[in-house]
Amino acid sequence: MAQAEEGGKGRTTQIELNLVPFIDLMSVLITFLLITAVWSQVSMIQLGSSIYGKRNENQEPITPPPLADIPLRVDVKEFGYRVIIGSERFQLPKIASGWDTEGLKARLKLIKEKYPEKSDGNLTVDDVLPYEALIIGMDTMIQGGFQSISVITAEAE
């Protein structure tokens, strides 16, 4: 509680402010904020799932994404390359001279023929591999016809 003591000749000498009620109020407000943040996340999930809920007869059928939107990922591993396009997976093991860049380039050209509008792809490299492996992977993807490359972190297996 605030108090003011008067010194000599009508001057105030000391003012003491009690901060305990203010701290109590702030702790209640922070708790309320944290609880309501969780409920706003749940409501966002419910709204997103209701979009694909019941279908009306007047609704247009949902069209699949164009072929250019199918994700392409090339993983550079210690054992070789792994290519993932949509739900298809291909393994390209190492050869005697190192990574099979010619095999990867041929595989990427086949993918480019199948998906001619696709120009982007993701590249992951194991952490234990040298920086050179990243550069070789990027160069091979560009030679295979994919000009827009994103380097992403590898997913845990």
Produce the secondary structure layout.
Blueprint lengths: L2 E4 L5 E5 L3 H31 L21 E6 L2 E6 L2 E6 L7 H14 L5 E6 L5 H13 L4 E4 L6
Helix pairs in contact: 2-3
What does this structure look like?
With 157 residues, this protein is an alpha/beta fold. Helices cover 37% and strands 24% of the residues. It has three helices and seven strands; from the N terminus they run ββαβββαβαβ. Helix 3 links the parallel strand 6 (120-125) and strand 7. The two termini are 60 Å apart.
The number of E-state strands comes to: 7
Q: Can you tell me the residue ranges where pLDDT is under 50 for at least 5 consecutive residues?
A: 43-51
| Main beta-sheet annotation | 5 strands, mixed
Tell me, rounded to a whole number, the average pLDDT: 79
